Amino acid sequence: MRRAHHPEVDEIALTGVMAALSDPIRIGLVRVLADGRERGWGELRAPVAKSTLSHHLRVLRDAGLTRTRQEGTRCFVLLRRQDLQARFPGLLEAVLAAAEDEDVGRQVSVKDGPHPA
């Protein structure tokens, strides 16, 4: 993996965030990552091919929702909760609450773990 670009907080655009959150799989990934834990890509389970999961993770990263870190051959992803709160106060919490209410993204989980709440 080449060095990933992560937008600075002031470069995170509302339209980019909203576009990234327009897919149920990506909302599910955000729900899983909302617990604040950094996850290895191999821990994430979604009903899509690995290449498609990689695409979804890249969309989230490019929009500024996540930060990706590479360690050897493994990649890890973390939700940029504080950065999003600083840029768009309350937005992430509203999205997570609505996703839970409407059960959006429930098909995404963590290996050997429960589906997000």
From TrEMBL:
<dbReference type="InterPro" id="IPR036388">
    <property type="entry name" value="WH-like_DNA-bd_sf"/>
</dbReference>
<dbReference type="InterPro" id="IPR036390">
    <property type="entry name" value="WH_DNA-bd_sf"/>
</dbReference>
<keyword id="KW-0805">Transcription regulation</keyword>
<keyword id="KW-0238">DNA-binding</keyword>
<dbReference type="Pfam" id="PF12840">
    <property type="entry name" value="HTH_20"/>
</dbReference>
<protein>
    <submittedName>
        <fullName>Helix-turn-helix domain-containing protein</fullName>
    </submittedName>
</protein>
<feature type="domain" description="HTH arsR-type">
    <location>
        <begin position="6"/>
        <end position="103"/>
    </location>
</feature>
<dbReference type="InterPro" id="IPR011991">
    <property type="entry name" value="ArsR-like_HTH"/>
</dbReference>
<keyword id="KW-0804">Transcription</keyword>
<dbReference type="InterPro" id="IPR001845">
    <property type="entry name" value="HTH_ArsR_DNA-bd_dom"/>
</dbReference>
<dbReference type="InterPro" id="IPR051081">
    <property type="entry name" value="HTH_MetalResp_TranReg"/>
</dbReference>
